[in-house]
Amino acid sequence: MTLVHPVILSGGSGTRLWPLSRKSRPKQFLPLAGEKSLFAQTLERLEGEPFGPVSVICNNDHRFLVAEQMQQARVTDGRIILEPSARNTAPAVLAAALLAAQEDPGRLLLVLPSDHLIADREEFSRAVRAGVEAALDGHMVTFGVTPDRPETGYGYMETARTEQGEKAPLMVSRFVEKPDAETAEQYLRAGNYYWNAGIFLFTAETMIEAFRAHAPEFLAPCAAAVAEARSDLDFCRLDATAWRSCPADSIDYAIMEKAFGIRCVPLNAGWSDLGAWPAVWEAMVRDGDGNVAHGDVLLKGVRNSFVHSEGGGVLAVLGLDDVVAVATPDAILVASREYAQQVGEVVEELKASGHEAATAHRRIYRPWGWYEKLADGERYQVKTLMVKPGARLSMQSHHHRAEHWVVVRGTVRVTNGEEEFLLSENQSTYIPIGNRHRLENPGRMPALLIEVQSGPYLGEDDIVRYDDDYGRDNEYSPASAMTSAPAMDSAPGRSPKTPIPMTKAKSSSR
User: Fold this and answer.
1) Strands of 85-134, DSSP E
2) CATH 2.60.120.10 fits 363-484, yes or no
3) What's residue 510's pLDDT?
4) Distance between CA atoms of 89 and 95, rounded to whole angstroms?
5) pLDDT of res. 313
6) 336: nearest Cα among 278, 273, 275, 274
């Protein structure tokens, strides 16, 4: 049996499904269609024959999300490749081919997104097997979804008509950009056009030669980034300097639209890219009124709508048709389904105004657990911390803020200056400004704490790491905190174990 080695592309800025999907936690890490995340479903789809070990290409910010979900899926032989910066999909695909060619130039690679929905796992595997022979013969193989409507949001492939039946790999005549409605209707009637699913099968050497022929400007910087790559814990870090000199382009534009001899295997497996809220609505089971409702919602006289409430209280919708309403603790989106494709424009406006809800949730995930903002104001911020069993934060200190921790569930071990001690539920400690400190969970259950930070400067750059289990360097310069922060008030001395009144505070990236 010929093994197919999957390469999962896990990038994206998380704008089209805002406010659920954001840059800090884009859609592939969310359970949008089922109890498991789209990324976890992708991993499950790649279990068993004909698939070999998985590689995932992601950015630095998402590395621990990827690692955690791979661990939960019991993927023990996978590899995580870190892109130093976003350069679109062409450099990522070439880097994967160059890394594979170091071991076997003839290795079959299946490149696929991490955030698509494919309902029929067996049909997906069958389609991949149907493309193996053509890929081994030196062709690049794509997978085309049979259109069931005149969709204007997808790119298309035109294929040559054949007497062999649609399950045989078809010759691709051309790739077509997203059409207007009239053209999309013509494609649907023609019967030989397929949606481009963004899934590709090829050998490593075939893809490298395609870059040599059609996009040679990528080769030298990508090869240097791979040659100078270094291991960091369980991650493979491509060299940042070489990577920055790579052009930024998609694999479709750089290679697929220029190459010859491309083959297409029809994919009829319940595919959706979930690229906007209407696509999510389309992919979900709807009630008798055509609605998809999730969470604490109340609908009266509503039809053909998507309504989702997540931690933001009850969401009531009355007398509306064809709407998208999504509520989170810090943001609410209400749009007609017709305009839901333009959510990205809203996110861009929020970014331009400096609104943090454009890119980050209130709950921020870290390799040790998560923290969630509860309240903030001048000179204070309050957060909830969850520390996973056996996990610990970095040994760190702050120049401009003090912290007060109150344990509300579980037991934690605290390092506070020269002291180390255990705290249980309803116990607390005070961390003076400048004290080296660390928080860890020695138990078997998640620990939950309330953290109050107070001081004249509460920015993310006021952190110095001395030791970190996850190989993270200081993400922010202590010097910048010293020079940019306001003058620091002198802090009254207190015993680390003495509870103080619940004043107020902010938190770092830890």
Assistant:
1) 108-113, 117-118
2) yes
3) 60
4) 10
5) 85
6) 278
The pLDDT tens digits for 439-466 are 999 999 999 999 999 999 987 778 899 9
Structure tokens at 325: 């309403």
From residue 116, how far is each of 42, 122, 154 by CA, in Å?
A: 8, 16, 13
pLDDT in tens, 74-91: 998 999 999 999 999 999
Name the CA dihedral angle for 202, 204, 209, 210, rounded to a multiple of 10 degrees: 40
Q: How far is CA 214 from the centre of its chain?
A: 30
| Per-domain residue ranges of the chain | 4-272, 277-348, 363-484
480 phi and psi angles, rounded to 5 deg: -65, -35
Strands (E), 304-368: 306-309, 315-318, 323-328, 331-336, 363-366
Residue the block writes with tokens 């861009």 = 348
- Count Cα atoms within 13 angstroms, Cβ side, for 346: 18
Write the single-letter amino acid at 190: A
Q: Cα–Cα distances in Å, from 487 out to 83, 321, 482?
A: 38, 55, 9
Contact 286, 307 (CB under 8 A): no
Query: What span, in angstroms and rounded, lies between the C-alpha atoms of 50 and 128?
Result: 8
Q: Edge-to-edge, what's the strand order for the sheet holding 380-387?
A: 363-366, 369-377, 380-387, 447-454, 402-409, 428-431
Classify strands 369-377 and 380-387 as parallel, antiparallel or unpaired.
antiparallel
Contact, 68 vs 366, CB < 8 A? no
Q: Is the pLDDT of residue 45 over 90?
A: yes
8-state DSSP, 491:
P
Instruction: Please give the Cα distance from 142 to 169 (Å, whole number).
Output: 9
Give the residue carrying structure tokens 């991949």: 128
Strand partners for 465: 396
CATH architecture for segment(s) 4-272:
Alpha-Beta Complex (3.90)
Cβ pair 128, 4 in contact under 8 A: yes
What's 357's DSSP letter? G
pLDDT for 20-32, tens place per residue?
A: 999 999 999 999 9
**CA distance readout (Å), 31 to 209, 235, 381, 485:** 38, 25, 30, 40
| The pairing of beta strand 369-377 with beta strand 363-366 | antiparallel
Sheet containing 331-336: which strands, arranged edge to edge? 292-294, 306-309, 323-328, 331-336
Six token digits for residue 246: 């790579």
Are 159 and 192 in contact by the 8 Å Cβ rule? The answer is yes
Token code pair at residue 374: 């509860």
Report residue 137 as tokens.
């013969």
Q: Are 293 and 317 in contact (CB under 8 A)?
A: no
Dihedrals phi, psi of 204, to nearest 5 degrees: -60, -45
